[in-house]
Write a structure and sequence with these properties.
By secondary structure, the chain is mainly beta. The chain contains 1 helix and 10 strands. It has a domain of 85 residues: Metal Binding Protein, Guanine Nucleotide Exchange Factor, Chain A, CATH 2.170.150. Helices cover 5% and strands 38% of the residues. The protein has a 7-stranded mixed beta sheet with strand order 6-7-8-9-4-3-10. Strands 1-2-5 form a 3-stranded antiparallel beta sheet, with no helix packed on it. The relative contact order is 0.25.
Length: 132
Amino acid sequence: MGETYQGGCLCGATRYVAIGNPLNVRVCHCRMCQKALGAAFNARALFHAEAVSLSGPISRKNSSADLVRGFCTLCGSTLFSERASLGALGMTLGSLDEPDRLPPAEHIWVSSKQAWVVLADGLPQHAEAAPA
């Protein structure tokens, strides 16, 4: 069955449980993530969509043709991004109850990284998307 990860929004109305190992754990520095989260980057763990159970007042909004962002309709916390074509949900690490359990393995889209962000963690860095 694998590990169980739980998380939720700022107000507590929306919750989720992810079961199993994530497909990957990455920090995305693309402008779309920056705009969607209002932050310098999006640290997220990618899970198979069927491994994640969501509950509470959730809304979805396309941020591009193939990417949907999910958020709590009460407090606005961004909880995930979804690529239906991949059948995967990228759960934001900040929304996890225990975010330190899933440290990122690499940085992607560093070509869009904010100049004041210094990456000194020794993790692999990719100018754009990670290699397939």
